[in-house]
Amino acid sequence: MSSKFQVFVSSTYRDLHDERDLVIKAILEMGHIPVGMEMFSAADEEQWNIIKKQIDQSDYYIVVAAHCYGTCDETGLSYTEKEYDYAISKGIPALGFVLDDSISWPKDKSDSDKTAVKRLKVFKEKVKQKPVSFWKNGEDLYGRCSIALMKAFNAYPREGWVRASQVQDTAAAKEIVRLSSENAELRERIKIFEEQAKEQSNLSEVMETLRNNKRVISFFKKAASNWEKGKEVTLYQLFEVIAPEMQVEFALTEIARYIATNINHVPYGELRNTWPSPRNELRTLLADLAALGCVEPSKRKKPVADKEEYWSLSPFGILMLSEMRKRRLNRVESLSKLSEAHAPKDKSNA
Asked: Terminus of the chain with fewer CB atoms < 10 Å: N or C?
């Protein structure tokens, strides 16, 4: 539906009468609806309530400022600033157009009262906190207003006004929107379900690969003169042991000692200090785990002086570890129930 936007135009009136007309012309030529304070007697409190209602119903707000602060209410606040403050408080997109200070301006259209000049300066600074353009003459203001409004229509979409005939089928339109939203939500759920199913399938496939491949990681004791053959274990067992330590990151030298003590079960104090497990075997192990998507080189930044090689779990590896832990917990629970079922029953009360 093609919407017409209501644009409230605010400014001092006596000095900017011609400029206001050009702004209103720009709005009308764009096919929208201008509304302004010249339609009302702003000094009347009852009329001020009407002005507020017009601002409430407006989609956009324009303020034009030159060198007059304008008519003030009993508190000393100009009605132009009062309208601006109210529009901002209502969250209405506001566009400011302030006369360029370098432009010569008639004295009879400028404030000479020091209080008014000071308040006008403060007001202009307030306006400049929102999107603002600086104009030099009426034609310049007219062009800048048209451009700024087009940008605002795109940047801050508003409801606007439409013909009644365009919304006669509102109920049907709302139902279409509801069904479309529901359809999008269902599609998203299906997508998530399919991704979860795929991940589950990948988990099972990788776990099977880990179980079917075995490794022997050698170790070197302090008192030894050569490498000793380690225990043959599956990649599954190796990953299950080192993965909890790799949730953040794990240095390759630490992995070497950790595997020697937790896979080959060599006491920590009996291992030589430097590379108790061979570097080439560890790198082959990590390369295989990386090929399966379980681990990856750490991405955390390190000091230049730190020459260590760090590894961590990939997102898939974190998922894999979680699945392994759940399965282990389920096995423990099943064994516990089986043990309870076969335990001798107490016949003391028979």
From this structure: C
